[in-house]
């Protein structure tokens, strides 16, 4: 609805300009259909739908592998439109952002712990979600000077360190630090206070991480292919979210977290609550959150894909 309304609004504004007798700027270079890009995109959509709705045991892994292959093919086609040095810099930038977004998350076990052990109810979890969405937009404005004055590598380095530090409050909640702080602040700095503060600070990071690459494309991509560059590179970095989901699944197979569950019909106990490995899971996630992007930054900056923009 937003996309269509934008097109309609643009047409209305143009018609008003013509009615007022104002001359419209000449159109940019004519856009031609790029059949390899269009065909690859269609194959990506069809394959994801067919395999994603199947009963194949490794459907998620297959969708990731094949989809990533298709997107890499599309990127290779687009790189032909850029000078070698610019295409190398764009690939390096995309790899850094991909790894930043591909870090695994704790999974549902942390939410179960917050509900069962910390007493977070649906309303409070909804408030946290609202804060995340709202401050993601605010963060883009507030952190704009940082992105304007720092290089892509510097921005991603700072975001990585911030993500690692901001993962610590969740670990603190698991180990009961909120009980110590609440006892010394008259109950003010309790579990909910820490959760809200952590969410408020952490919310903008994921959105800000995408801005450096989009800005690079806006400056350097050919005028007639900017939208295609945006779409393909955004698809590539969004694949990182699927990689993150896979990583979370694998970590939860190593660190098993279970929630108490009872059969509603028979009353039989299906599983008992076990959060004993949640601390180790969160520590592992924190290490990966910091290590994966930093190692990628180091590798990229010491290769031909080095970026300094």
Kindly provide the radius of gyration, computed on alpha-carbon positions and rounded to a whole number of angstroms. 23 Å
What is the tally of helical segments? 15
In the CATH hierarchy, the architecture of the largest domain is: Up-down Bundle
Q: And the CATH topology of the largest domain?
A: Growth Hormone, Chain: A
Number of separate strands:
2
Proportion of residues in β-strands: under 5%
* Overall average pLDDT: 83
**Class from helix and strand fractions:** mainly alpha
Query: Which ranges are low-confidence, i.e. pLDDT below 50, for 5 or more consecutive residues?
Result: none
CATH class of the largest domain: Mainly Alpha
CATH 4th-level superfamily of the largest domain: MFS general substrate transporter like domains
Q: What order do the SSEs take from the amino end to the carboxyl end, as H and E?
A: HHHHHHHHHHHHHHEEH
- Sketch the major β-sheet: 2 strands, antiparallel
Q: What gross morphology would you assign?
A: globular
Kindly state the percentage of residues in helix.
over 70%
Q: Which quaternary structure do these chains form?
A: single chain
How are strands sequenced across the largest beta sheet? 1-2
